[in-house]
């Protein structure tokens, strides 16, 4: 009987210790500075938003949040680094969901997936656009499509199997266009090549082309989302041209899988406050990004649903995307 009581006491102690450990994880987190990985080029729209959010996380949690660019592989390099980081909440990443939902279907042996990376919260919606130089002979999307049916057109994207690339790849298939894809590390490089006259058009996050559009050196022809970009209300969607092509892109915070639930809850709450903050709203407005907060449950579901959708799209295309 005494042994049984001792065993019960020990079990209770372990339960209490476990609860105390979870509470401690939440109360003391973060005990050290946080690294926030930007898997895309420095200076990109993703980088701008990552830095705005990092500043708000610092103000709320009292530890510095250092943004580190680990670009390459359409987000794969940075997100692989996140996947391999300790699951303590001290390494995070801010990225469009592309490297988690699209790349795993195209790159053999890539271990990234919604089951190996933990979605924390959604922050922005990236509306994707097709742009040309202001002096381009293609005044409308119809002009570009007509030309692409008679000759080869070169276009730039932020990388193989990136969401902007997939939008144009689908457009090319839908309209039977002769297109040559030139991949770059991020939107800025392809837009610079467009301005230099070495590309016929570029596909990117519309926000990335916004400074040139406002300066009058680049013209947006269409967007690939379900709605028009509120900053460019005169630019139609592909669907408005009767082209059934839509490519959605949302961006948010991710953590390594296995990060303690109390830590994730604290990050989710901090994310919600960050999106509501005036500095983040101002950063979004200045960079023509669209805030679209999704809590952890909503973001997790969207990432998983998009992963399934992209796999089905690839199978429907016969698995023949580049």
Element layout with pairings:
Elements: H1 2-28, E1 34-38, H2 45-61, E2 65-69, H3 76-83, E3 91-96, H4 98-101, E4 117-125, E5 128-133, H5 141-148, E6 153-157, H6 163-175, E7 179-183, H7 187-195, E8 201-205, H8 206-215, E9 218-223, E10 250-256, H9 261-276, H10 278-286, E11 290-294, H11 296-316
Parallel strand pairs: 1-2, 1-3, 6-7, 6-8
Antiparallel strand pairs: 3-10, 4-10, 4-11, 5-8, 5-9
Helix pairs in contact: 1-9, 2-9, 2-10
Task: Describe the protein's architecture and organization.
The protein has two domains: 31-125 and 250-316, D-Maltodextrin-Binding Protein, domain 2; 128-241, Periplasmic binding protein-like II (D-Maltodextrin-Binding Protein, domain 2, 3-Layer(aba) Sandwich). Helices cover 44% and strands 20% of the residues. It has helices at 2-28, 45-61, 76-83, 98-101, 141-148, 163-175, 187-195, 206-215, 261-276, 278-286, 296-316, and strands at residues 34-38, 65-69, 91-96, 117-125, 128-133, 153-157, 179-183, 201-205, 218-223, 250-256, 290-294. The chain starts with a helix and ends in a 6-residue tail after the last helix. Residues 1-25 have low confidence and may be disordered.
CATH C-level category of the largest domain = Alpha Beta
- Estimated helix fraction: 40-55%
Q: How does CATH name the architecture of the largest domain?
A: 3-Layer(aba) Sandwich
Order of helical and strand elements: HEHEHEHEEHEHEHEHEEHHEH
Structural class: alpha/beta
Nearest-angstrom radius of gyration?
22 Å
Reported by name, the CATH topology of the largest domain is D-Maltodextrin-Binding Protein, domain 2
Count every beta strand, where a strand is a DSSP E run of 2 or more residues.
11
Strand content: 15-25%
Head-to-tail CA distance between termini = 69 Å
Number of domains: 2
How many alpha or pi helices? 11
Shape: globular
Unreliable stretches: 1-25
Largest sheet: 6 strands, mixed
- Average pLDDT confidence is 89
